[in-house]
Amino acid sequence: MTFISILFALLFEQLKPLRADNPIYAQIQALANKIEASFNAGKVAHGRLGWWIVVGSLTIPTALIYWLCLRLSPFAAFAWNVVIVYLTLGFRRYSHYFTSIQLALSAGDEDAARRHLADWIHRDTSDLDVSEISRLAVERSLIATHRNVFGVFFWFLMPVGPACAVMYRVAEYLAHAWTEPEHMKNEEFGVYAAKVFYWIDWVPARLTAVAFAIVGNFEDAVYSWRNYADRWSDEAVGIILSAGGGALGLRLGEPEEKAMVLQADATAVDVDSLELESQPGSEATPRALQSVVGLVWRALLLWMLLLALLSFSVWV
Predict the structure, then answer these.
(1) Which residues share a beta bridge with 282?
(2) Is 195 exposed, middle or buried, given 0-12, 13-18 or 19+ CB atoms closer than 10 A?
(3) Residue 17: predicted pLDDT
(4) Which of 42, 55, 70, 219 places its Cα 20 to 30 Å from the Cα of 131?
């Protein structure tokens, strides 16, 4: 049932993609903002309580409805699975940004590409050149694909799959909603949300990196993963981008400044040369965006093949 549920949800999303500003997501964001406003008193314990309230209020009803559907009929449980996977997956949710950037760069319209990228990553892009626009688009697409697709796949395979999928997506949202905004960066309230998502995403992030390595340049992906993943402050992001960059043969990410200082102290060589050494591969170009599309689709097909084999083994 798991494989068929995901397959139907992917087909529905191809026909009718769920936009990022849909009413259901808006309600979840409103709930998270309300809990943060009510419980944020500047302590980690308050963030822990707020996290469990938000996650519990969404996952427990999902699990109860799934249990009720199982009691009623396997078809009811299947329908509920498809609905939840459709709502939690986001294979095409942000693809319009990526496609717009790709088309703008292909047409030589750098200003339009900067505008689309700024709308996507919510930062100033006015001083970026074509290579930097391409690199950021590639990085964003790899991370978005992991968190909106492959991470959901993994948790949907767990017992009470629909509730676990909801838990993953809500935890992912809280991890950045309660830590990344300017007014939350120095708050302890979001520390728990970030830590718990680190563990929730620990296995899925590595499975995504493995998938990129298998369907891309395996040797370069593994080499980059082993040697350069720790250059990023976010471990999961470092693993995905280093493996994805190696699989594509691209130089992705910006190594952390503290790592560069440590290397400079250890080797007493020029920092600029270290930066080049620490990011192997070629510079990203507009052509790289098409390579990313191919990598993501191959990784998706690999996941679906593994799910199909797992489902077949269970039936047999």
Answers:
(1) 250
(2) middle
(3) 82
(4) 219
